[in-house]
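Table 4 source record.
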Amino acid sequence: MTNGDGSDIRDALQRWVIRVHKDFGVESGSAIVQSLLEECSGCRIRIPSEYELYRRERDCAIRRYFTGQNHEELAIRFSLTVRQVRNILRNE
């Protein structure tokens, strides 16, 4: 989500720094930001959407709760079709 000059990304990062300082205090927030910079400076980072994180967690839970025969139960529990559950289990 950038207009070509990176300003959208810079704006998002600035909002994140402000939020980290607000949520964790200036001292702790600065330490968090500094550690991120030390570890990731110069790297390209792709941040997944909340939905992607939710799907990963959901799919892991489906695999964890799978007993070998409970496809339908998992489909109901996670509001999916049996076919979707089978696909998730197949794509481990």
